[in-house]
Amino acid sequence: MRSADNRVLVGMSGGIDSSAVCLMLQEQGYEIVGVTMRVWGDEPAGARELADRIGIEHYVADEREPFRQTVVRNFVDEYRRGRTPNPCVMCNPLFKFRVLTEWADKLGCRWIATGHYSQLAETNHRIYIVAGEDEKKDQSYFLWRLGQETLRRTLFPLGTYTKDKVRDYLRSKGFEAKASEGESMEVCFIQGDYRDFLREQYPALDEEIGPGWFVNKAGVKLGQHKGYPYYTIGQRKGLEIALGKPAYVMRINPDKNTVMLGDAQDLCTSWMLAEDPQIIREEELLSCPELAVRIRYRSCPIPCEVSRLDDGRLLVHFKQDASAVTPGQSAVFYDGNRVLGGAFIASQKGIGLFTS
User: Fold this and answer.
1) Beta-strand relationship, 314-323 and 338-345
2) At residue 317, what are phi and psi to the nearest 5 degrees?
3) N or C end: fewer C-beta atoms under 10 angstroms in the chain?
């Protein structure tokens, strides 16, 4: 279907950000179509009311089962593998932007738009994700797996806004109640402790894995834990073991169901392995003089150098020590505020073969 040049499909959650996006784009002369994805529980409140108030088409996509089979299943499986997932990184390419693209094609929309606090820029015929200007809200970290075809039809109207300015904008348009709403949850499908969620989604988890041992760096048993999926690298609180000094999770071994504990300095490293990279231009990544990497959301970028191993993994050399490198999380590479690509932090087992 041929899409109208000014027709844009907006992913509407009913919250502050997507509501502002609809108003901004409508003000700019776009023809707005809204789609609300029902992924968990009841239909999100607010989107339908906003659509009626500003006079736009609105649809609801019931995607609960596909969401459970992709994003939620991956979340549970990663913890069962002894890793710590970031569901937003999986959701964006495999689910959210895929669904938006499919609906945009179906409804004749050339563009898709979301309320992400990020920007886009074209350099040498490639589209790059650029960090949003609000450092506290920047969401570029979550978007590294989006492909060029998707990025070329995407709009991020909030990239130059702070959250406070978005609220002010809504108030100026007569949406005082919407502007005063609270923030949404970081993980949309979890309320409370993720451990309870794992048990709910996988009732056999405790029976399948069961208690294991906390060990020190020498492999000496220190006491029992509840099962390795309930811990993450760098964790200090909630270990329920008294060692006379603060202890941190250093390493998780799902094969042996052991969780290694150590001191804070034991978490520091100068090297990291990352797998399944998705890089815009690899030569740019490998030669970038100001390259830096984020190893978790909202962490400070760490200056680094990267090389490609024969098996396809990336070997990252930090120019200053990094702490709590966590398999399953994303390593996202930046040149200034521009995203060059990313990879998943891999198991660090055997890294000494490449760094000695």
Assistant:
1) unpaired
2) -110, 110
3) C
Strand order in the sheet with 258-262: 221-225, 212-215, 258-262, 248-253
State the Cα–Cα distance between residues 330 and 290, nearest whole angstrom: 19
pLDDT in tens, 283-308: 999 999 999 999 999 899 999 999 99
Q: By three-state DSSP, how is residue 328 classified?
A: coil
Quote the CA–CA distance of 325 and 348 in Å, as a whole number. Answer: 9
Residue 282 CB contacts under 8 Å (≥ 6 apart), including other chains: 308
pLDDT for residue 185? 61
* 131 contacts 138 by C-beta, under 8 angstroms: yes
- Identity at 347, one-letter amino acid code: S
Q: How many CA atoms lie within 13 A of 302 on its CB side?
A: 25
Q: Which helix (H) or strand (E) holds 77?
A: helix 73-80
Q: What are phi and psi of 217, to 5 degrees?
A: -65, -25
Strand 31-38 and strand 4-11: pairing? parallel
pLDDT for the residue 186:
67
d(CA 346, CA 356): 19
Give the count of beta carbons closer than 10 Å to the beta carbon of residue 137: 19
The single-letter code of the amino acid at 213 is W
Work out the number of other CB atoms within 10 angstroms of the CB of residue 130.
Answer: 19
Long-range contacts of 69-73 (CB under 8 A, 24+ apart): 70/94, 70/95, 71/39, 71/95, 71/189, 72/189, 72/201
Q: Which residues are catalytic?
A: 91, 188
Q: Which residue has the tokens 């964006």?
A: 92
d(CA 340, CA 127): 10
* pLDDT of 2: 47
Render pLDDT for 172-216 as a digit per residue (tens, 0 to 9): 999 999 999 987 666 788 888 999 999 999 999 999 999 999 999
CB contact set of 41 (below 8 Å; sequence gap of 6+)? none
pTM value?
0.94
Which residue carries 């999100």 as its tokens? 44
Q: Tokens representing 170?
A: 């809504």
